[in-house]
Amino acid sequence: MFRQMLNGKIHTARITRCVVDYEGSLEIDPELLKEANILPYEKILVANRNNGSRLETYAIPGKAGSRDFCLNGPAAKLGNVGDVVTIMAFAVIEEKDTATHHPTVIVLDENNQIASRHN
User: What positions carry a catalytic annotation?
Assistant: First the structure.
């Protein structure tokens, strides 16, 4: 049997831009993607702490070092600049491996800088 488990997470990210007239997705600084073990174009779940919305989309790499989080396309209607979100990616893992699986979690500060890491 297989289980779907949290694999990478960016906690307390602040939305920096919203662009409705775009194809879709969440643009994320690639340095933060790497730190959270989330691949470019990987499916993600985004939970908005400010309004309670959840959306599925995919991560696209933005400008390295920018610390930007930009909601694009229809997703831009589900958040505002300054909203605090949690971004999660999942992996399908064999049940026998779940006891040793540990997700990569980064927690960001109010400037989208890494405040802490958990593995």
Answer: 25, 58
